[in-house]
Design brief:
The chain is an alpha/beta fold and 359 residues long. The chain has eleven helices and 14 strands. Strands 6-9-10-11-12-13-14 form a seven-stranded parallel β-sheet, sandwiched between helices. Strand 10 (196-200), helix 6 (210-216) and strand 11 (221-223) form a beta-alpha-beta unit. Helix 4 (147-158) runs parallel beside helix 5. The longest helix is centred in the C-terminal third of the chain and has 17 residues, at 342-358.
Length: 359
Amino acid sequence: MSLKTELSATHQQPTLKLTHYQNGFGVDVGGNRIHFSGMSTRVVVDHRISAALPRHPEKVGRRDNPIQRKPDWIRVKAPNHPVYHQTRELMRENRLVTVCEEAACPNIGECWSQRHATMMIMGDTCTRACAFCNVRTGVPEGLDAGEPGRVADAVAKLGLRHVVITSVDRDDLADGGAGHFAAVIRAIRGAAVGTTIEVLTPDFLRKPGALEVVVAARPDVFNHNLETVPRLYPTIRPGARYFQSLRLLDRVKALDGSIFTKSGMMVGLGEDRAEVGQVMDDLRVAEVDFLTLGQYLQPTVKHAAIARFVTPEEFSEYGVMARGKGFSMVSATPLTRSSYHADADFAELRAVRARRVAA
């Protein structure tokens, strides 16, 4: 397995030490240990911030949770398609951050080979510290006023029919970044007229008026993930509040009923079937149109442990359950992620609404 490092011109190369273990390998980067499963398909060591700073400083003192070997149904191929490299190069040229890379998404090879990249605005550093997430945590930099234009330019060059825009949490900003989301939506509308826009937003906790700003910009889909069941919030999503997230989704429909709403959750964190069913019911009360369900995959030994790998058959059962509760669209597979196949899913979601209106 090769180890590829990308070095900023402003940083000196740190010392890298690769150590093999029975169940994977570890990388020492400037004194920081990162452990990867033997099933990992890619490794990117990020030097945009000094290697002396850990990616997740709040997790440094936590005990290690060994990464389990993934079952056969989780395996993905390493990205090697030429279009994948073209997509990657465009992201670099436009100085854009993607959640595909930052969150170590297993579907990056497939999606980028189809020019589908989910851009993550407002920087690469999150103000929250969720136990499941691989995005860097810490104190973020100020907003980049040129970013909306660069995002729009990339969307136009990729020729996307549908684009998903997400962000880090920005609790440091008075509006949580809502104005920046709106600016990105407007820029895309100007540069790529036929492209439909899906936003995957933070919860805007304690940011009055922020949601209204994003809704007023009229994205085609408003997505906000509940992530897990309420019982697990204190350990898995400690900076968030389950009912705040529900109210956010409910409020979108109250503000503009024409906007599709969407939410997703991970399974395999210790939840039970009844709890998953209750989350589905809560989302339907909020009139959420689209539900995504996927397997939680542990990024590093410092993140929350996987309680179990949910089988494809169980995901199929969850899909049947969700459709029975009235969701217009459901995607429930081990590798489902919020923006996975989002373009095709949006086309189907719009077709479902059209059929219902015509009936």
